[in-house]
Amino acid sequence: MEIINGERLVLGTCYYPEHWDESLWRDDLRRMLENGIEVIRIAEFAWSKIERYEGVFNYDFFDRFLDVAADMGMKVIFCTPTATPPAWLTEKYPEVLNANMDGVLYRHGGRRHYNYNSPKYQELTRIIVEKSASHYAKHPAIIGWQIDNELNCEKNEFYSESDTIAFRKFLMEKYGSIDALNEAWGTNFWNQTYNSFEEVYVPRTTLSNNTNPHEVLDYTRFVSDSACRFAKMQSDIIRKYIKPGDFITTNGLFGNLDNQRMTNESLDFITYDSYPNFAYCLDAYNKDNFLKDRMWSRNLSEVRAVSKNFGIMEQQSGANGWNTGMAAPTPKPGQMTLWTMQSVAHGADYVSYFRWRTCTYGTEIYWHGILDYSGRDNRRLAEVKSVHEKFQKLSEIAGSKYEAKVGFLKDYDNAWDSQLDVWHEKVEWKSQLGIFEAAQRTHTPMDYIYLRDDVTAEDLKPYSVLFYPHPVLISEERKVVLEEYVKNGGCLVLGCRSGYKDMYGRCVMDKLPGKFAEMSGVDIPEYTLVSPDNKDIVIDWDGTKLEAAVFNDQLVAVGEHAEVLGRYENCYYAGEPGLIKNTYGEGTVYYFGAAFSEKTAEVFLEKLGVKDPHNAKLEIPETCELAVRKKDDTEYCFVLNYKDAEAEIHVKEEMTDLYTGEKVSGTVVLKPFEVRVLK
Amino acid sequence: MEIINGERLVLGTCYYPEHWDESLWRDDLRRMLENGIEVIRIAEFAWSKIERYEGVFNYDFFDRFLDVAADMGMKVIFCTPTATPPAWLTEKYPEVLNANMDGVLYRHGGRRHYNYNSPKYQELTRIIVEKSASHYAKHPAIIGWQIDNELNCEKNEFYSESDTIAFRKFLMEKYGSIDALNEAWGTNFWNQTYNSFEEVYVPRTTLSNNTNPHEVLDYTRFVSDSACRFAKMQSDIIRKYIKPGDFITTNGLFGNLDNQRMTNESLDFITYDSYPNFAYCLDAYNKDNFLKDRMWSRNLSEVRAVSKNFGIMEQQSGANGWNTGMAAPTPKPGQMTLWTMQSVAHGADYVSYFRWRTCTYGTEIYWHGILDYSGRDNRRLAEVKSVHEKFQKLSEIAGSKYEAKVGFLKDYDNAWDSQLDVWHEKVEWKSQLGIFEAAQRTHTPMDYIYLRDDVTAEDLKPYSVLFYPHPVLISEERKVVLEEYVKNGGCLVLGCRSGYKDMYGRCVMDKLPGKFAEMSGVDIPEYTLVSPDNKDIVIDWDGTKLEAAVFNDQLVAVGEHAEVLGRYENCYYAGEPGLIKNTYGEGTVYYFGAAFSEKTAEVFLEKLGVKDPHNAKLEIPETCELAVRKKDDTEYCFVLNYKDAEAEIHVKEEMTDLYTGEKVSGTVVLKPFEVRVLK
Amino acid sequence: MEIINGERLVLGTCYYPEHWDESLWRDDLRRMLENGIEVIRIAEFAWSKIERYEGVFNYDFFDRFLDVAADMGMKVIFCTPTATPPAWLTEKYPEVLNANMDGVLYRHGGRRHYNYNSPKYQELTRIIVEKSASHYAKHPAIIGWQIDNELNCEKNEFYSESDTIAFRKFLMEKYGSIDALNEAWGTNFWNQTYNSFEEVYVPRTTLSNNTNPHEVLDYTRFVSDSACRFAKMQSDIIRKYIKPGDFITTNGLFGNLDNQRMTNESLDFITYDSYPNFAYCLDAYNKDNFLKDRMWSRNLSEVRAVSKNFGIMEQQSGANGWNTGMAAPTPKPGQMTLWTMQSVAHGADYVSYFRWRTCTYGTEIYWHGILDYSGRDNRRLAEVKSVHEKFQKLSEIAGSKYEAKVGFLKDYDNAWDSQLDVWHEKVEWKSQLGIFEAAQRTHTPMDYIYLRDDVTAEDLKPYSVLFYPHPVLISEERKVVLEEYVKNGGCLVLGCRSGYKDMYGRCVMDKLPGKFAEMSGVDIPEYTLVSPDNKDIVIDWDGTKLEAAVFNDQLVAVGEHAEVLGRYENCYYAGEPGLIKNTYGEGTVYYFGAAFSEKTAEVFLEKLGVKDPHNAKLEIPETCELAVRKKDDTEYCFVLNYKDAEAEIHVKEEMTDLYTGEKVSGTVVLKPFEVRVLK
Asked: Which part of the chain is the Glycoside hydrolase family 42 N-terminal domain (chains A, B, C) (predicted)?
């Protein structure tokens, strides 16, 4: 493949040849190449450019453009246009539209207003993809394909009639009989019992917005399934036509979608759209958020959970904003480079800026590209060129992998249950943010690992410590993998509320923590949300005071290997155990009876001996991120300064600066937004 | 009757025998009985358990369950299942559904998604109630019936087509002719004149959400009428079948419903669902609300206004919460007992905990019962047992009545008008809270009395002082009752805005305070809302500064018996009278030109000599509530400590502690959440 | 004409003879006349009074009323009743109703629930207007007509099917072909291309609420066009029948409506509805807003932009409030007079109080008139009488014009674009408020001037300085007018973001500030919203620190006449030019790279020598407004004290107090809310 091939870092951009203007095209492509951009993505919303009238296909426009690109030496990623059905299509076939829960259709004019399950839309999609792929795939300028654009962006809930029909089919396949569904969804409650699948719908408007939670969980799985099937339908067609070595991808990472499954089924690799400047949107800015744009390292870690090496299809290159919202300032000098290197540090080997020129019309007139409206050279283009020069120097890191000894276990079942269940959500979000921020502040590289069906204890072995803060839903299979990981010497850290639901999201009629009882050596006779009239519930762990946030399980140690490490210090359960360590096989399980705040998570990192593993080499202030990519035995240390102020780091062992090739040691000062890559 | 019979206090619980598991049933019933629970409520959402397919009735499940109950010696309250129509029903007959104002139907899956006026739903309701009552009513385990569940909960507005048709009928009966309706509703305004009843609808979507206020008032009366008719339809059927001594009730106290009428027409007594832990919901917690869970004493006083003795069908026994909201902590040790005794103190002779086990599926997985998911014995079950033991000791208070010398007059016309009229609402809510909180803080027992058509001056006589803070709407009949009460020596306290509307909610084209002019000796040439650029408007009453909150009537004393007691101290009406006392017959009327804040209300209690009437016996801190039940000449004093801290009371005359049978006097320390019952 | 005739100031009121009660009518009219009210407006919602059943017309009611009015000597403004279609009409023809974007119809019962484009409503409107005008126009009591009531109030967006059909017609006329529309709207973006006008709709529900911004701009123009056509349809009919000298007007000034066009096409003059007490609504009160009710001077300046002399059809005379909201206190003694004089000071020669009696039913029971519900004499009626006496003294100012040397340029294209574009909105609102407040505080009279097609450089010449803070959209024609104004010696002050869009709202693919480049001598290589992590960006202008609010253009001076006056002091563009002065012909253009805060605007007023032009005569505290009306050479200075406190002014040259006829000089103390008119 031309990109993500382990050979070098590549720069690209998103290009919109909207009008037939060859001299403009040539001029643009020439300027891109001069500034180090060698790949462009095109055509992701261009359905009408190819099929302006139903069944009438015209390839002239992109034929010509691709010839120009080939002539100039520009490589092209070509897109299927299914994210934006044309006006003629939605006007003639309104059944393809998505709707809100009340049944109001989302109309033409925005993006992604279609539903995945409309037979008519699937038919029209198959036609346009088949026509496009069969016509263009052999063109020498093309190096790969993007399916659709940002699947599940804009809205990841679907309420059309086609969705109800497809949902019934999904449920029939899952449950076989309506009584099995009744049992799984607990329809005894509030007399929800169904007599046939015909009585089941996607969630509809109900009083107090109370759709059965087990239904909503299955519905979310169904939405993900629908998106995956839609992507695969396109991928299967494109595969028939593409040249050897050309790739298929799609971009973005959105909710209610199992990105691993989609990638496995349909893509060669995944790409992400990274806009850290969202942190500076005027209406969303949170001055108390310590991480701000550095939060995007979390998103990049999510992408890395899908694939260790990946691409950035859209990397921020200007101010963001729609005419209707999301207004943000222009990136300051250095920020574009910082955010590009943030992507690379986490595993991106391809970075494509969104977009070359800023659009002068439509909703996205403020979603700036590299160039402003006039198209003249500017500061940001100069920054692109300097990134290109840096990429040349960093070439050897292509194909290296982000290196972490701490893992954070996740799974879609818990993620989606926490969306529909406010008790689950409260603990989940506290710990998600707490553990991530603690790892960031302490320069402890951390991976996310999704506990999928194909994950084995062997896959988990590289991690000295695994946080799985709130595995509320747990299956027998996953439990067995975790037990094996621990038995073989692993260290698993669990938080409150573990194991109280089955995979349908029903509570277990059992002692808690359910399936975790044995490995954790814990029994939970009582529990409570932290009352709003109490605050700062504290657990004492050998003299260290841990905040016991959000929820408190009152624990009892069970079995000879279970040891009470910490006890609550206040409220009516003062003196009760709140932290238990269980030796299980060769390993250990820690059960902490609350959610993990950032301070609490930092104590765990420290006490478990995994905090700041590179501090023998590098001493870095907490305002800088440390990310390490490794290939063979070489470690590439990225130090990223997110602040608009200088930062001082200490290089304790002599290292090589990849930008300059020079040796560095001792105190090094990073300029505002500066990044250093040291090996 | 087995409960509310003046003989003893009885404990119950709500039970959900969802699966046919006789050994579980027997085990549960045995454990209940061992812990003092002798009544269970069942089947309130169980329509599909009896009629899973339309017209196919199967009684096996509850036949067997009732036999088991009878065998174990458990008494049963059986419910009609109409709160939750089955899926087959709403799928086949969508006309039974309620809708929002825009016409979007509320679909299957929640609760109470039906409308009262659908002829089809009424027909199907009659069938299921007839079938259930005729089949089960003779069963020896059954002691009474609950109609539906929480009428008007979830939503107390109805916008289906059936509602419009029924509303027209209601209006035709009320007005006779469309011109009478036009006159009553002032349809001259904004050209709203109707030519026929066919042009009238339940409130529909209008610009700026402005439905004619007189229509909304009648609509609210119509909603209440609809609910009452629906309850009576069921009650009339059940009455035909029940055993002698068995009762009919329903539960809860919700908006837009004349609970007195419903009780008189259809019930033997009313029961309430008491969840004081709502005060500790995470999203609703108000740390500045002094009363918190003690606010539920207000709700209990509302129940008592319907019936001096009543039951609690659902009493909080665990944390509350739906998966979609209302998350609250687990009740602390002692709170369950405290809230139970709060119910008893206000007149409950039957208390049934919601629920035995916590449901493991559906929306209410966090609405905890006595037992958690596992069903094992726990702290809260132990607390139930101790309540049972206390109930044994309190047996003699059954049938005694809450005793108050201060009354607070209410009526539904004003309550409902204050919902639709923000000026009315502002004064109403200020005074509702102010007077209640003043009574609570000063340990002044107070009753609510609804000024219904059957209330006479004689009924009011027991009250030394009656507050009727803002009788905006007043009828000639009610005026006469009040005049008679005062003439006979009563003391009536009125606040601002009295009497400026007629019973249609139209303002009177008359001097204010309209019908109250004569009895109050007041004329009101000017009035104003307290301007947001003024604050703390004060009236001086013999040197005491009264806050004149929200609204200011500028008064003039009329007649020889009217005396100016207080004058405004600031704003452009400084010096104008704000408080007038009128001697009227043997009694007095106080007209206060503003709303009653808590401090203001306390001054009235004090100056009118009704504050803290039991202070010769008991001296209690303001953090404790005092409630007194009386039978014959015995006064039972409940002292309830709502705080998670000790409280010190002083027993000035020797009294007997009913729990221990011991004499107590002098200083007594109440533990956190502790209750003492002294006689 | 009887009013707005340059001869005298006239008082009126709005009257609602709702019931046939001649003695009440006579009594009311007599009392009005006794208190100086000589004109009444009637019948604006009275459709059913004339056509209660479709096609059945009955003129008796107003025939009789007009005879009584004539008999009493009262002059009448008669209204067309189209603001409130009758129930029979909307029931029979629901297609006349307006709808929300989701298609939900706005139903009978409020106001203005119709749409302008329904052929059926237009037909029924033509009939009722023709019938009314042909029957009543000759009546001697009538002096003029009001069309409808408050066009575009309640809601100024229309989503009915008739609107879509009319919108297509509007677009066909504007663009001729669908491809011209595609080009103008940039439908290339997000594949929005249309193949025919049949595919185009008024804005519909879209995901993320993103309708094409160029479409929304045209849609807003279409709404304005629809309202103007609707008014003209009525005006054309009425003109056929009215007596010589009788006038046609309408009332209010609402959004999405080109009031100048409507006035030019259909009216003799415009009238406004002035309710400054909105500033004291309980829910909207902003104690930090310095101007409060004085903000209504801004609205009055907008009216004056339509016509130098105008009327007030509804002037606040009591508390405002609907039963559903907008609750406000009663005007304090003096405020009614203050607000009346505020209207007069800005150009009103006719002032009509809303309303005589307060309505006792319907939504507006709290929208108080002069009299309260009882109708008896009161303080506010006495204030009307005193206003009448003052009007006698002020008679000579009738026909005089508000006098200002500072102008504020506006146009509807920019106003409407700023509604749909949050970046535009942010700068627009900052500067709108900043410049207005600066002018008010510094007693610098200021006019609004709408840069319409018929405005010439000559029209602008009287203004020494013109602010045109953010002309984002600019046409070639307007540019030429501005250039000519400057060349001839004018001074034009521009702010950031000038000229970056064309008249379709598309960004120009050109250097910024686009069409302003030449006259301003400015180039803008970079720009940014002020980042939320920076604050207080400052430009230094000869030692004066200017706040550079909201947005920062980084400027470069171009050409020999351009001079850098100010530079940014902070952020990454510290040192870059932020203020450039260009000499252009005989005049100058100032380009300021940010929005104008109040402090910044004050500096401009000062540095450009136009601040406080009357300070040689009068020295006034900033809490008082100064407004000057001029006739021939006489200047009438209105000094208005908006505070509930005394204010001290200094009369430096001897002047005459028009109320008293006395000479005044030196220190004069104004009582709370007092107004002085000095010449």
From this structure: 14-394
Q: State the Cα–Cα distance between residues B174 and B197, nearest whole angstrom.
A: 12
Q: For an interface test with C, which of B159, B198, B210 has the most C Cβ atoms less than 10 Å from its Cβ? A: B210
Q: Closest Cα of chain A to B19: distance in Å?
A: 9
On chain B, the residues whose CB falls within 8 A of the CB of A574 are: none
Q: What is the pLDDT of residue C18?
A: 85
Binding site feature residues of B: 111, 149, 322
Contact criterion met (CB < 8 Å) for B191 and C53: no
Q: Which of these, B471, B464, B462, lies nearest to B411 by C-alpha position?
A: B471
Q: How far is CA B553 from the centre of its chain?
A: 30
Nearest by CB to A207, which of B87, B113, B375?
A: B113
Contact A109 C215 (CB under 8 A): yes
Q: What is the DSSP letter of A331?
A: P
pLDDT digits (tens, 9 = 90+) for C311-361: 999 999 999 999 999 999 999 999 999 999 999 999 999 999 999 999 999
Q: Tens of pLDDT along B251-275?
A: 999 999 999 999 999 999 999 999 9
Is the reported ipTM for this assembly greater than 0.95? Answer: yes
Distance between CA atoms of residues C500 and C516, nearest Å: 9
pLDDT per residue as tens digits for the range B384-406: 999 999 999 999 999 999 999 99
**Helical (H) or strand (E) element with B315:** strand B310-316
Supply the pLDDT for residue B554: 98
User: C332 CA to chain B: closest CA distance, Å?
Assistant: 7
Chain C nearest C-alpha distance from A219 (Å): 20
Per the DSSP assignment, residues forming a β-bridge with C507 are: C501
Contacts of A164 in chain B (CB under 8 A): none
Determine the Cα–Cα distance for residues A53 and B395; give it in Å rounded to an integer.
85
Question: Between A19, A327, A378, which is nearest C423 by CB?
Answer: A327
DSSP state of A75: E
Chain segment C29-45, per-residue pLDDT in tens: 999 999 999 999 999 99
- Output the CA torsion B391→B394→B395→B401 (10° steps): -120
Pairing between β-strand A663-670 and β-strand A551-557 as defined by DSSP bridges = unpaired
Q: Is the peptide bond before B525 cis (omega within 30 degrees of 0)?
A: no
The structure tokens 């009371």 sit at B649
Q: Region B612-626: what's the mean pLDDT?
A: 97
Binding residues of B for substrate: 111, 149, 322
**Does B205 contact C104 at a Cβ distance shorter than 8 Å?**
yes
List chains adjacent to chain C, taking adjacency as at least 3 C-beta pairs closer than 8 Å: A, B
Residue A18: pLDDT above 90? Answer: no
Q: What is the pLDDT of residues A283-300, one digit of tens each?
A: 989 999 999 999 999 999
pLDDT of B174 strictly over 90? yes
Alpha carbons within 13 A on the beta-carbon side of A435: 28
What structural domains does chain A harbor? 10-84+118-155+230-398 (3.20.20.80), 406-607 (3.40.50.880)
Q: Using the beta-carbon criterion (under 8 Å), do C362 and B186 form an inter-chain contact?
A: yes
pLDDT of residue C147: 98
Residue A154 annotated in active site: no
Q: Which of B471, B387, B384, B385 is nearest to B427 (CA)?
A: B471
The bridge status of strand B544-547 relative to strand C562-568 is unpaired
The average pLDDT across C261-266 equals 98
Work out the minimum CA distance from B525 to partner chain A, whole angstroms. Answer: 46
B111 to chain A: closest CA residue: A190
Percentage of chain A lying above the pLDDT 90 cut: 99
Strands (E), B31-114: 39-42, 75-79
Q: Of C506, C523, C527, C529, which to mutate for an interface test with A (greatest number of A Cβ within 10 Å)?
A: C529
Q: Which amino acid is at A218?
A: D
**pLDDT score at B535:** 82
Binned at pLDDT 50, 70 and 90, residue A535 comes out as confident
